[in-house]
Write a structure and sequence with these properties.
There is one protein chain. It contains nine helices and two strands; from the N terminus they run ααααβαααααβ. With 282 residues, the protein is mainly α. The protein is flat and about 60 Å long. The termini are close together.
Amino acid sequence: MTVNILLFKITLLLYAVAMVLYLVDVIARREKAGRYARWVLLGGFLVHCATLLARYFEAGYTPVANLHESLSFFAWTIIGIFLLFDARYRLSVLGAFSCPLALVLMIISSTASTAMRELNPALNSWWFPVHVTLAFLGNAVFALAFVAGIMYLLQERMLKSKKLSGLYYRLPSLEVLDSINYKCLTFGFPLMTMGIISGAVWANSAWGGYWRWDPKETWALITWFLYAALLHGRLNVGWRGRRAAVLAIIGFLCLLFAFLGVNLLLSDFHSFKAMEGQQLPQ
């Protein structure tokens, strides 16, 4: 077992423990468990950083070239962005919703092949880490908007039905959730935009063209237009509340399809097979 795989398994365990502690805080109202969860999650994130560094030095490239690496990297960015928001809002319930999302990505990642392969020579460029980091950070911010959107709809439904479960008293107000949604949009959209632009510049240096209308590029553009419409609606039309929450959820589902569905089912230049070369010795 290589060092990066051992660290990966430790990370997965710590994320699972943090999720359980967050759920104990939210369900049983044990605030002490929430405080422990933050420290366990921070520890898991630091181990995850070490995991990616170990993978980087063993493989020789930014570890996002296959399904295992990409899902792990996505989970890392989600936890990192959550920790930043948690420093501002201190909402254990946000962790109770965000940790399961990252943990699911880690579990799926653990089932994928962990074999390291050489990076396709056409992709061996310093644009590679720039593009993927910007893209994944944007995806992670939108993942948090997705979580806030789900929480908003749950809160709103309980208020309208006047059936207030225990979760109602742990959820933040609709105003706070809408604020989180808006902040995610204002941070995520520029990151997504820079990710697409850096990808276009990288494509030009690798293949001699800025845009090839590859299925993944097409779906990335569709997702970009959806978030652009949401941002325009919030800034100029006054979209708030339920509509913004629903669109944040739809946008993230489209983003997931662009990230995984297209990559695994339809993509050409962006498929994991296209990114890989020969297998590296273990």
